[in-house]
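quick one: adenosine-5'-diphosphate bound model?
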Amino acid sequence: MPPRVRSAWFRTLGQLALILAAAALVGVLIRHPWQVLTVAALGVVAWHYWRLRKLLMRLTARQRHTPPLGEGTWNELDRLLHRGQQEMRGRKRRLIEMLRAYRAAAAALPDAIVVVERNSQRIQWFNEAAHGLLHLQHPQDINTPVAHRLQPLQISRWLASGRNAEPLEVASPWNPAITLSMRLIPYSENLWLLVARDVTRLLQLEQMRRDFVANVSHELRTPLTVVHGYLDMLDPAEHPDWAPMLAEMQRQSQRMTQLVEDLLTLSRLESADHLPAEEPVAMSTMLSTLRREAMALSQGRHEVSVEDSAGVDLFGSGKELHSAFSNLVGNAIRYTPAGGHITIRFRKDRPERLNSGAMAKDTGVVLEVVDTGYGIPAPHLPRITERFYRVSTSRSRESGGTGLGLSIVKHVLNLHQARLEITSEVGLGSTFSCHFGAERVRPREPLDIALP
Ligand code: ADP
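yep, here:
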């Protein structure tokens, strides 16, 4: 017990003892000790009830009162309650201030923020920017269904995917020059945050970057062709001293030409949001072409085998698919030491599990390039498809790599709604698998006879 409370307690007990002693004394003097003692005890009880009532009145009045001054237990109790009340008020004030500050910060954000009730999908709250970007009006739009309010944007299906909703990029219906990027963030059991950001400037910068790379590559093409042409005309036999120099110049100009070609391919793929021309792609022809290319690149240093168990064709752009697959095959040869084995496999994919739990009837297909080469350390795998990302720069340069091959593969696969999976173990080899969905599969043309 704190000393202050203890002394108040002893004081009250002392007062009680004094009152009872005085009452006993008076009682003895007037010869009615029990009556006087009873009256005194009743008086004490009455006084306590009166203090209890006073305290209850004070608490229920909900008004600020000054802290009591006396020193008994009742005053101490009153004082403690008063202190508790003061602390609670302070805490409440601080919480309200914090809440106001959060609201002000959310309201001042440049991104549109809309709080949506999960089940009814009705708007609960939105900030200033939501008025500018999404044309929401306060207070009319509070409690209206968000999909209905944001029409003509078609976001019902997107909202329905809830937690799994991918960020959505759409042209603003109120100003087609503005592109909005919308994200759905579930932040509590029954509330979602719909965040819309104006990404027009970002997209413009991205476009500028792409145009710049494409223009520079295009401009470099002609001078490189000229240099390359003149280098080809120089006969090393006529200038034996220059032979190693000429060979190196030729190698480097070839690398630069390849780099420019790869950059142009990448720019073209990046700016396309769909494939220009789609057609059935004869896979047995494709596989034998890949085999031929692999053997030419390997020049007998590797064993190359082709396995074709899928027995179907693909639907897409034959040219782009060939460029992607031959990049993978080229890498397998270049990053596998002599004596290694390269397998080009075209097989059916494992059936996917549907939302209902059943297995999908139509399966996709996988084109896999397996090598027994150097392998890739696991920390590099997530970044391997980035432009110019190399595990070993010297090995890549030595083997004539541009650092753009896997970026090209990823873009080509994206345009085919396919995905690249890479598994690798250092010293054992790597597997690059291109997974195509069932919608990209076509029955094999009977005339498509495999070339030997
Ligand atoms: P590069 O032109 O350098 O080969 P890529 O984009 O094709 O560029 O590949 C990026 C990097 O990934 C390469 O530099 C290499 O380090 C690694 N890599 C790609 N394929 C393989 C493979 N089959 N085995 C081992 N490493 C590989």
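The chain has twelve helices and 13 strands.
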